[in-house]
Design a protein that fits this description.
- The complex is a heterodimer.
- By secondary structure, chain A is mainly β.
- Helices cover 0% and strands 55% of the residues of chain A.
- In chain A, strands 2, 4, 5, 6, 8, 9 and 10 form a 7-stranded mixed β-sheet that branches. Chain A has a 3-stranded antiparallel β-sheet with strand order 1-3-7, with no helix packed on it.
- Chain A is globular, with a radius of gyration of 13 Å.
- By secondary structure, chain B is mainly β.
- In chain B, the strands form 2 sheets. In chain B, strands 2, 4, 5, 6, 9, 10 and 11 form a 7-stranded mixed β-sheet that branches. In chain B, strands 1-3-8-7 form a 4-stranded antiparallel β-sheet, with no helix packed on it.
- The chains are: A mainly beta, B mainly beta.
- Chains A and B meet through strand 4, strand 5 and strand 9 of A and loops of B.
């Protein structure tokens, strides 16, 4: 399953609301759609699983939605620590696949 | 504290082999499989496959068969990634990743810090 994330890069100011898109080449059960955040020089960090369930310790400004072939990650109000690369992943079928990532950078 | 601690950076010549280790602590190592993920410089994440931490049985993604070997150390809490006949295109950060608690299979809430493998003559 190919995951396509858009846009590739977003330039935004702190406080902005942002929605990232993840489109799948075939239907993915929402149970198996995951989002990660990765900062430079760090390992990815689990944000959401099951498309919308926040992982432990993830603030509620992060939310997810979607079904089938289109999923979104929304950050309601960007904090300085949120500027990073975001990846979606499907874990419903092998091989597990990741999207190419969306970079959220400071404007 | 739940963590995966990987071995340090490696610089190898083409044709050599390298072994990356990933030591787990703070959770039950044998409950969930250990996965390996590659990230080439400036690129995204690529799933390499996984190893059953009970049986040691590995499963490789396409593109990671032949030269890549997943195994478990006899200590019982360490996973190993061996790459043989290294090529320049193997230059990447290699991550181990797993689950520490059940939420959904194939999503990873615990990651190693990454091991940079550089292949250069």
């Amino acid at each position: 399953i190919v995951l396509t994330q858009s846009p590739g890069t977003l330039s935004l100011s702190p406080g902005a609301r942002v929605t990232l898109s993840c489109r799948a080449s075939q239907s993915v059960s929402s149970s198996y759609l995951v989002w990660y955040q990765q900062k430079p020089g760090q390992a990815p960090r689990l944000l959401l699983y099951g498309a919308s369930r926040r992982a432990a310790g993830i603030p509620d400004r992060f939310s997810g939605s979607g079904s089938g072939t289109h999923f979104t990650l929304t950050i309601s109000r960007l904090e300085p620590e949120d500027f990073a690369v975001y990846y979606c992943q499907q874990c419903g079928s092998s091989p597990l696949t990741f999207g190419g990532g969306t970079k959220v950078e400071i404007k | 504290q739940v963590q995966l601690v990987q071995s340090g950076s490696e610089l190898k010549k083409p044709g050599a082999s390298v072994t990356v280790s990933c030591k787990a602590s703070g959770y039950s190592f044998t409950t969930y499989p250990m996965n390996w993920v590659r990230q080439a410089p400036g690129q995204g994440l690529e799933w390499m496959g996984w190893i059953n931490t009970n049986t040691g049985n590995p499963t490789y993604a396409q593109g990671f068969t032949g030269r890549f070997v997943f195994s478990l150390d006899t200590s019982g809490t360490t996973a190993l990634l061996q790459i043989n006949s290294l090529k320049a295109e193997d230059t990447a950060v290699y991550y181990c990743a797993s689950q520490s608690v059940w939420f959904v299979e194939g999503a990873f809430d615990v990651w190693g810090q990454g091991t940079m493998v550089t292949v250069s003559s």
